[in-house]
Amino acid sequence: MVNSDAVTASSPTAAPPETAAIDVAHLVKLYKTTRAVDGVTFRIGPGSITGLLGGNGAGKTTTIAMIMGLVLPTSGRIQVLGHPMPEASAEVLGRMNFESPYVDMPMRLTVRQNLTIFGRLYAVENLRERIEQLAADLDLNDFLDRANGKLSAGQKTRVALAKALINQPELLLLDEPTASLDPDTADWVRQHLANYRKTHNATILLASHNMLEVERLCDRVIIMKRGRIEDDDSPDQIMARYNRATLEEVFLDVARGRVAEGAP
């Protein structure tokens, strides 16, 4: 296992504290006797895309939930966009957003109604124009006035992405954003995320089981296992350290307990 503090301090992809979009230090979350997150430390620089990898139960979703202020850490420190979380959540939440295919929006409301409600929650100015822009960018116009419950999986994913972008967030947290999508729709979503990062200098933290997606999108990969950071570096450096050609092979090595070459 790679020491997360050492990697974070030395990795060229790690950000110094004064510029970090996300700064997590010694984060722990206990559920009774279970350590869902166990001493996690990392910093993420602005304008980057970081992949958060790990099998089921690795602690990815709990870590994201604590960064969002939805789950209180047992111990440790979180700063988001320069503000402590969850203490200063009012200063931060309007500048960030979240997307997951596992979180449904109200099924009986139309796409337009859902986006209007979320836009008002974020106090989006010129909301009607913003929804029209997103509908054009994400190809929503054909079903903008259709109930959310009558959409296909791919359509729901595009609507969820529109919701996540409604406030033009500086920080975007994504949990399996292309799960259950056909290859064409998934590729389209990935391209839109890459374009959004580039045009808005946004920071994206992406939890995914799709290793090809992570290789394509991410500048940096943090691999978690049993609540701890197992490795943290660029995709190329991690693959080289495990002497593997793909991140999927690395993922299997980590899951099966193989140690990277040169690791202590």
According to DSSP, the number of beta strands is 10
List the domain count as a whole number. Answer: 2
Q: Evaluate the radius of gyration.
A: 18 Å
* Alpha-carbon distance between the two ends: 7 Å
User: In CATH terms, what is the fold-level topology of the largest domain?
Assistant: Rossmann fold
Strand content: 15-25%
Low-pLDDT windows of residues = 3-13
N to C succession of SSEs: HEEEHEEHEHHHEHEHEEHH
InterPro entries: AAA+_ATPase, ABC_transporter-like_ATP-bd, ABC_transporter-like_CS, ABC_transporter_ATP-binding, P-loop_NTPase
Family: Belongs to the ABC transporter superfamily.
Domain ABC transporter: 22-251
Protein name: ABC-2 type transport system ATP-binding protein
Walk me through the structure:
By secondary structure, the chain is α/β, with parallel strands linked by helices. 36% of the residues lie in helices and 23% in strands. The longest helix is centred in the C-terminal third of the chain and has 18 residues, at 183-200. The model is unreliable at 3-13 (pLDDT under 50). Belongs to the ABC transporter superfamily. Keywords: ATP-binding, Nodulation, Nucleotide-binding, Transport.
Summary?
With 264 residues, this protein is α/β, with parallel strands linked by helices.
Explain the layout of strands and helices:
Blueprint: H1 4-10, E1 22-31, E2 34-44, E3 49-53, H2 60-68, E4 75-80, E5 83-84, H3 89-92, E6 96-99, H4 111-121, H5 127-137, H6 153-165, E7 171-175, H7 183-200, E8 203-207, H8 211-217, E9 220-225, E10 228-233, H9 235-241, H10 247-255
Parallel strand pairs: 3-8, 3-9, 6-7, 7-8
Antiparallel strand pairs: 1-2, 1-4, 4-5, 9-10
Function: Involved in beta-(1-->2)glucan export. Transmembrane domains (TMD) form a pore in the inner membrane and the ATP-binding domain (NBD) is responsible for energy generation.
Protein name: ABC-2 type transport system ATP-binding protein
Family: Belongs to the ABC transporter superfamily.
